[in-house]
Design goal:
With 171 residues, this protein is an alpha+beta fold. The protein has four helices and eleven strands, in the order ββββββααββββααβ. Helix 1 (44-53) crosses helix 2 and helix 3 crosses helix 4 (144-154).
Length: 171
């Protein structure tokens, strides 16, 4: 799958994608738009559709949590369904997640079950198959990019290069 980590204003990810026993590389699994940094773990088609089509623009004075729950989550779930030819949810992608960060808030979004867990930007978060390793590394005071490197050592679904974006560099 992947590892995407957030810690102290930095989001990092690996660049490996896996299809069965085939491993390939992509440029990035994280992007910035509308003042947010977003990482996508799970289906590559969801990432591609969100990067190509863009994400909904937050409404003026809309809180981060309201935007994630009421705008971004429903939109991402449509992107996920469209990526699979309109099939209803099933075994084909039960674990797609988003990691969304603004300058002061972070959220983990589960696309299959519609779950949203949010917190302050001074906390650390991780998604993907290597998340347990990345979380342990960040608990031990490693940066987000170092946490992804740690995950690469233990998770076969994490590999390639490490790409990172700082939330304070959003334009």
């Amino acid at each position: 799958m992947t590892t995407i980590a957030y810690n102290n204003g930095l989001m990092a990810s690996d660049t490996q994608i896996t299809a069965g026993s085939t491993r390939e590389r992509i440029e990035s699994k994280i992007f910035q738009q509308h003042g947010l940094t977003i990482g996508v773990a799970g289906t590559l088609a969801v990432l591609n559709r969100m990067m190509i089509n863009g994400i909904p623009k937050p409404k003026k004075k809309q809180s981060f949590d309201s935007y994630v729950l009421n705008e971004l989550l429903p939109y991402a779930r449509v992107m996920k369904k469209d990526a699979h030819g309109g099939e209803s949810e099933g075994d084909w992608d039960h674990d797609s997640q988003l990691l969304v960060a603004s300058s002061d808030r972070v959220a983990v979004v589960g696309l299959a079950d519609g779950s949203v867990v949010s917190g302050c930007a001074d906390e650390y978060f991780s998604i993907g198959s290597g998340a347990p390793f990345a979380l342990a590394a960040m608990y031990l005071h490693q940066s987000a990019d170092e946490a992804v490197r740690v995950a690469m050592q233990f998770d076969i679904g994490t590999g390639g290069n490490v790409v990172s974006l700082a939330t304070n560099e959003i334009k």
